[in-house]
Design a protein that fits this description.
CATH topology: Rossmann fold
Domain Serine aminopeptidase S33: 63-139
Strand order of the largest sheet: 1-2-4-3-5-6-7-8
Number of domains: 1
Number of strands: 8
Number of helices: 5
Keywords: Hydrolase
GO molecular function: hydrolase activity
InterPro entries: AB_hydrolase_fold, Hydrolase_4
Shape: globular
Strand content: 15-25%
Largest sheet: 8 strands, mixed
Protein name: Alpha/beta hydrolase
Structural class: alpha/beta
Mean pLDDT: 97
Helix content: 25-40%
Length: 211
């Protein structure tokens, strides 16, 4: 049986990597795929961030093709930072590539920090199966108008020193349909020493949603 590979892609102006079994044509048999959005481009965020790659490995272990990409102006992606507006367009372009490759698959949007904000915003434009938001940047970008319409998991740590835990909890509390939450005491914003438990928690939630 073929094993998943890391396949470098160029999606228009975006640099991306698809973690999947290599195929030569669209695969209608795949049931679920994941798109993973990285943290803030102006603060060294990229698709190689360790939380992003942990989410990719989690998806791979469940048999889901997973696409990560660099937002505009990061790595080999063209264009420049657009304060979160154009970055939603970037994610939508990446999502379209996944839908082209896997035309029958349900799309799970995932993101860390700024990427969590982008994933939540994209869910307002796209029909998606669910959201996984890791330490979403609720105190740095305006998420107050975003209402999740799909199953959602929010994870953060109470000692986060980048995004205020109060802002993330407030967003959770404002949702009409309460998200599932994984809230730990320690690990900071970047889940130092806590990536293993995070991966297992997200994997368990996603497995339950797919049943």
């Amino acid at each position: 049986m073929s094993r998943p590979q890391e396949i470098p892609l160029r999606i228009d102006y975006l640099e991306a990597v698809l973690t999947a079994v290599a195929v030569d044509q669209p695969d209608p048999a795949v049931s679920d795929v994941a798109l993973v959005c990285h943290p803030h481009p102006l603060h060294e965020g990229s698709m190689n961030n360790k939380v992003v790659t942990t989410l990719v490995r989690m998806a791979r272990d469940l048999g889901l093709p997973a696409l990560r990409f660099n937002f505009r102006g990061v790595g080999a992606s063209a264009l420049v930072w657009d304060e979160g507006r154009g970055e939603v367009d970037d994610a939508e372009l990446a999502a379209a590539e996944l839908r082209r490759r896997y035309p029958n698959a349900r799309l799970w949007l995932m993101g860390f920090s700024f990427g969590g904000y982008i994933a939540a915003k994209l869910s307002e434009r796209q029909s998606v199966a669910g959201l996984v938001l890791i330490a979403p940047a609720a105190s740095r970008f305006d998420m107050t108008a975003v209402q999740s319409q799909v199953p959602t998991l929010v994870a953060f740590n109470r000692d986060d020193d980048v995004v205020t835990p109060v802002s993330m909890q407030a967003w959770v509390d404002a949702q009409h349909t309460p998200p599932s939450c994984v809230i730990d005491e320690v690990g900071g914003h970047f889940y130092h020493g806590r990536l293993g438990p995070l991966k297992r928690a997200v994997q368990a939630w996603l497995e339950a949603q797919r049943r």
